[in-house]
Amino acid sequence: MQRRHAWGYLWGIVLVLLLGSGLRMVGLEQSPPGLAPDEACNSYVAYSIWHTGRDQHGVFLPTVMRALNDYRMPLFMYTQAPLVGAGGLTVFNARLAAAFWGILAIAALYRLGREWFNPPVALASAALLAISPWAVPLNRIALEANATVAPALLVAICFWRWRRTGRFPYLIGAATAAGLGLYTYSVMNLFLPLTVGMRALASRHQIRARWPQVLRFSEWASA
């Protein structure tokens, strides 16, 4: 019976991911209609980086993207680069990275739900995100904010796994996801340090008990 339930949840998340993918990818070139100026700017920067290694202003592999009249975090554009660079500068390819980030967020939320609660709660949470009237339209436009949710969820997953198991790779995974998250959207420079600090405070007993491992991680991160 338990194995049957496990297979049921597996097929459940597969169906949720297929539903989420369909809502984010079907008719991507037609809906929303047209290409907004910010989408066009992001896509051209990604196209330029793929072919020249430089943004539209000639900066080589920038860590902050200079757009037309503002500055943007680069991770989303770097994930756009192979899609628009190899596949062509089309509306569909430009928006495909946004859909991929949205699908990754659904999978990550399911994993976090299983870690914190149980499979039914995880599946329900993933299904709600898959059909969310807030998430679906955002995941269909080529804007860098799409890349924020998945790294934040991965930080929570890896840190929780480290807290439970004490395995060093999970601590590295949490730090890597947090580092990538800082390059997704400007507000994450405030949000991620606050959330990581709160998790560290809540896990102070585990951190104290595993202090040699934390010190080893600090040496690894500063190397």
Q: What's the structural domain tally? A: 2
Count the E strands: 2
Order of secondary-structure elements: HHEEHHHHHHHHH
Spatial gap, N to C terminus: 50 Å
The order of strands across the largest sheet is 1-2
Regions with pLDDT < 50 over 5+ consecutive residues? none
What does this structure look like?
Helix content is 71%, strand content 2%. The chain has 223 residues and is an all-alpha fold. It folds into 2 domains: 1-144, no CATH class; 148-223, no CATH class. A two-stranded antiparallel ribbon has the order 1-2. Helix 2 (37-52) crosses helix 3 (75-87) and helix 4 (91-116) runs antiparallel to helix 5 (119-130). It is flat, with a radius of gyration of 19 Å. The model has no long low-confidence stretch (mean pLDDT 89).
Task: Describe how the helices and strands are arranged.
Blueprint: H1 2-25, H2 37-52, E1 65-66, E2 71-72, H3 75-87, H4 91-116, H5 119-130, H6 135-138, H7 149-165, H8 168-181, H9 188-202, H10 204-209, H11 211-222
Antiparallel strand pairs: 1-2
Helix pairs in contact: 1-4, 1-5, 2-3, 3-4, 4-5, 4-7, 7-8
Give a quick precis of the structure:
The protein is mainly α. It has helices at 2-25, 37-52, 75-87, 91-116, 119-130, 135-138, 149-165, 168-181, 188-202, 204-209, 211-222, and strands spanning 65-66, 71-72. Helices cover 71% and strands 2% of the residues.
